[in-house]
From TrEMBL:
Quaternary assembly: Homodimer.
E.C. code: 4.1.1.37
InterPro entries associated with the record: Uroporphyrinogen_deCO2ase_HemE, Uroporphyrinogen_deCOase
Gene Ontology BP annotations: heme biosynthetic process
Keywords: Cytoplasm, Decarboxylase, Heme biosynthesis, Lyase, Porphyrin biosynthesis
Start and end residues of each Uroporphyrinogen decarboxylase (URO-D) domain: 33-42, 153-169
Taxonomy of the source species: Eukaryota, Metazoa, Chordata, Craniata, Vertebrata
Molecular functions (GO terms): uroporphyrinogen decarboxylase activity
NCBIfam families: hemE (TIGR01464)
Example of a GO cellular component annotation carried by this entry: cytosol
UniProt name for this protein: Uroporphyrinogen decarboxylase
Catalytic activity: uroporphyrinogen III + 4 H(+) = coproporphyrinogen III + 4 CO2; uroporphyrinogen I + 4 H(+) = coproporphyrinogen I + 4 CO2
Length: 269
């Protein structure tokens, strides 16, 4: 991604509440900034009404729908930030995998990765603008519609979390299939994690170029790894993402805070 791509548009409304951004930069704030991971969700009747009868990922691919769902909770509660409505599994979709949201079951991969040979089915070169441009459009639209009330957070799933979904074929209590890959196919595991990392870096940079004012990386499945596995298959890729994104943003004169959510691994970091 070019340096010019990361120069933000100048016509976004001026930010009125920077509490979240100041806290993310380590500055003291008048109060602890508040926002929710599932800020736009089923607890809102207007959310349920907006989503009724519609395919989940079709909604994710509609910038207008994502903008509306992102803004809904701000009309009810004085949050200090908004997080764009999307899903971490749009990244596997960008790599060419079919992902469906099945009622009563959750995200489902009809053809999960079973053997290392299946990596050949994934796109080697991902055109992030083409495959995930709808997220960027949603971010830009929301930055304008939010009228500067609070900053907008962009996000992604982390490599290991996405890898586990791609191998398990959906949610799992044990993640046994994904963990088996780490032990039986360590080289292929690192190959997949590297592929995901490369796409994630470009995806996050694209979100900033579209108007995201902060970034969050969700390593939701980190807690199922032991300390040794976490340090080999999760942490290096989290660090690589942070370094590469920060370096690119610094080159472009951008200072965008990044937040990492590594579930249940505070004792491992």
């Amino acid at each position: 991604m070019s340096k010019d791509r990361l120069i933000l548009p100048k016509d976004f409304p001026q930010l009125q509440n920077d509490t979240f951004l100041r806290a993310a930069h380590g500055e003291e704030t008048e109060h602890v900034p508040v926002w929710c991971m599932r800020q736009a969700g089923r607890y809102l009747p207007e959310f349920r009404e907006s989503r009724a009868g519609k395919d989940f990922f079709e909604t994710c691919r509609s910038p207008e729908a994502c903008c509306e769902l992102t803004l809904q909770p701000l009309r009810r509660f004085p949050f200090d930030a908004a997080i764009i409505f999307s899903d971490i599994l749009v990244v596997p979709q960008a790599l060419g995998m079919d992902v469906q949201m099945v009622a009563g079951k959750g995200p489902t991969f009809p053809e999960p990765l079973k053997e290392p040979e299946d990596l050949q089915k994934l796109r080697v070169k991902v055109d992030v603008d083409k495959e995930l441009g709808y997220v960027f459009k949603a971010i830009t639209l929301t930055r304008h519609k939010i009228e500067g009330k609070v900053p907008l957070i962009g996000f992604t799933g982390a490599p290991w979390t996405l890898m586990s979904y791609m191998i398990e074929g959906g949610g799992s209590n044990t993640h046994s299939k994904a963990k088996r890959w780490l032990y039986q196919h360590p080289e292929s595991s690192h190959m997949l994690l590297k592929m995901l990392t490369d796409v994630i870096v470009e995806y996050l940079l694209g979100q900033v170029a579209a108007g995201a004012q902060a970034l969050q990386v969700f390593e939701s499945h980190a807690g199922i790894l032991g300390p040794v596995e976490f340090k080999e298959f999760s942490l290096p890729y989290l660090r690589d993402i942070a370094r590469r994104v920060k370096d690119k943003l610094k080159e472009a004169g951008q200072d965008v805070p990044m937040v990492r959510d590594s579930k249940s691994v505070f004792v491992l970091i």
